[in-house]
From TrEMBL:
Disordered: annotated span: 141-184
One example GO MF annotation: nucleic acid binding
One GO-annotated biological process of the protein: transposition
Descriptive protein name: Transposase
This protein's GO CC annotations: cytosol
Comp. bias intervals (Polar residues): 160-176
Domain spans labelled Integrase catalytic: 165-325
Top-level taxon: Bacteria
Entry keyword annotation includes Cell cycle: no
Taxonomy of the source species: Bacteria, Bacillati, Bacillota, Erysipelotrichia, Erysipelotrichales
Keyword terms of this UniProt record: DNA recombination
Listed PROSITE patterns: INTEGRASE
Length: 329
């Protein structure tokens, strides 16, 4: 902790007085209770033509004091536009932006806390629209997101399971192998089409697509089509009725095994749940997915696959899955 105190205007006036009395630097320092090095620097820095003026010296000090304040990172227009684009247009979180910049440059460009402060201060709000939906704060992951209460009870029907999640292969449990997938469905408008999401546990790589109904037959078609060109060692879905006929998928995918979590334990397949939360940024609840084209859906899946993840050391799922490198910033 620094205990240094700058000279006051009164002290500067005393220096002028003692100089006029022909005091030495050491005597002046002793008289006003300062180190002689401080007095010596002050006289040399603020004397003109061997004449020391306390008012001029103090004004110069105030100007230097103002100029020495650190500059804000986001005052750099290029960095500001980059952060704004990744946050507003691509839904990257502040940690993802900061981490990816560090990953590509090898040094800290901007911290996630700086980005959070900018968001909360309204730096990324649209002009004259900051009062609408609380501005850019709504772009943050959980801002305003509804939560289940403690007494919430799952009312979905029970299905017959083939394997318990505790029986999953070691390569799935420790995330050491590609090909162990977690699956779920994301509903838009009730009774309409839904999204099927399949996430690789090791790399967080997302595949899937649109099922025209949240029914087992339609969901099975999407699962089979999405995974037929990928390595598949196991699938861990939730216990929704849309996975009731999973035995059809088992046969179609060379007898891959399904492993089901315990009832009301979504955290046992947290990789998929987290990805579904990210996907909600593009497909909010209540939106009719029937009207959304498959091309757009796949583009948003690709957007997530090329979004850096903290758990991957700020690599993207695409880079981790295909063992390649991209340039994104």
């Amino acid at each position: 902790m620094c205990h240094y105190k700058h000279l006051t205007l009164i002290e500067r006036e005393k220096i002028m007085f003692f100089l006029a009395q022909n005091y030495s630097v050491t005597e002046i320092a002793r008289a006003i209770g300062r180190n002689k090095s401080t007095i010596s620097r002050e006289i040399k820095r603020n004397s003109k033509e061997d004449y020391y003026q306390p008012a001029v010296a103090h004004n110069s000090y105030l100007k230097r004091r103002t100029a020495c304040k650190p500059h804000k990172k986001l005052e750099d227009p290029d960095l500001y536009l980059l952060v704004k684009e990744k946050f507003l247009d691509h839904q990257w979180s502040p940690e993802e932006i900061s981490g990816r910049l560090r990953y590509e440059s090898g040094k800290c460009i901007i911290s996630c806390n700086t980005i959070y402060r900018a968001i909360y201060s309204g730096m990324f709000d649209e002009p004259n629209k900051s009062h609408v939906n609380r501005g850019a704060i709504r772009k943050l992951r959980h801002r305003g997101k509804s939560r289940h209460t403690k007494d919430y009870e799952e009312r979905r029907g029970k299905i017959q399971i083939s394997n318990d999640i505790s029986q999953r292969p070691v390569g799935s449990t420790n995330r050491s192998q590609r090909g162990h997938w977690e699956g779920d469905s994301v509903v838009g408008k009730k009774g309409k089409a839904c999204l099927v999401t399949l996430v690789d546990r090791k790399t967080r790589f997302l595949v899937g697509g649109k099922a025209f109904r949240k029914a087992a037959a339609d969901v099975n078609v999407v699962i089979i089509q999405s995974l037929k060109d990928h390595p598949v060692k196991s699938i861990t879905p939730d216990r929704g009725k849309e996975f009731a006929n999973h035995k059809e998928v088992i046969v179609a995918l060379d007898y891959v095994q399904f492993y089901f979590p315990l009832p009301h334990h979504p955290w046992q397949r947290g990789t998929n749940e987290n990805t579904n939360g990210l996907l909600r940024e593009y497909f909010p609840e209540g939106v009719d997915i029937t009207e959304i084209s498959e091309e757009y859906i796949q583009a948003m899946y690709d957007e997530l696959n090329k979004r850096p993840r903290k758990c991957l050391g700020y690599k993207t799922p695409y880079e981790a899955y295909y063992s390649t490198s991209l340039h994104l910033t």
